[in-house]
Amino acid sequence: MDRSQKAESVASLNAIFNEVGVVVVTRNLGLTVAQSTTLRNKIREAGGTYKVAKNRLAKLAAQETPYDGLGDFLTGPTALAWSVDPVAAAKAVVEFAKTTDKIEIVGGGLGNVVLNADGVKALASMPSLDELRAKLIGLVQAPATKLAQLSTAPAAKLARVFAAYADKDAA
Q1: CATH value at residue 119
Q2: Per-residue pLDDT, 15
Q3: Helix intervals (H) in 3-115
Q4: What are 40-61's pLDDT values in tens digits?
Q5: One domain for residues 26 and 103
């Protein structure tokens, strides 16, 4: 990598760090190419990205961003996973880490908050942004649905009573 490629890499990572909601730092303990591809696909499906970056360049890119505190985690063979959704990347990495012992979650960041490995696992156990939106919409719609049911119930009961009288008269 020459100097211009390094500068481009730092600028790219810096722009990413300024846009994303969460960054997870993982340590590679001998992942095969197939396992790495599977992990990348799972993270991509969740709406995130997984990338191996040089530690020194990642530390430079993280400066003056909300993820400035991640520098301590960037030692050894590390990789970064990130997503705009604060839960998506963490959830995908934690689920993959349960299937193999060849990847270790080192830590991460959620905005200005630096998370240790347990913090990332706790973040992964939370519902995603889409799930929270669905629950909120369900809670907002529930009273309206119940009101509609209550307003139609008396009319339905009255119609059944009239039908019963009509059946009685017909018999």
Answers
A1: 3.30.70.1730
A2: 92
A3: 3-19, 33-45, 55-62, 88-99
A4: 999 999 899 999 999 999 999 9
A5: yes
Residues sharing a CB contact under 8 Å with residue 108, sequence separation 6 or more, in sequence order: 22, 23, 24, 25, 70, 73, 90, 114, 115, 119, 120, 123
- How far apart are the C-alpha atoms of 128 and 89, rounded to whole Å? 10
Task: Pull the structure tokens for residue 170.
Answer: 């017909």
Q: Which residues of 90-100 are buried (b: 16+ CB within 10 A; e: fewer)?
A: bbbbbebbeee
Residues in the chain: 171
Query: What is the pLDDT, as a whole number, of residue 97?
Result: 92
The tokens for 4 are 């211009």
Residues 133 and 121 in one domain: no
Statement: residue 63 has pLDDT above 80: yes
Among residues 136, 38, 126, the alpha carbon closest in space to that of 85 is found at: 126
127: number of Cβ within 10 Å:
12
63 alpha-carbon distance from chain centroid: 24
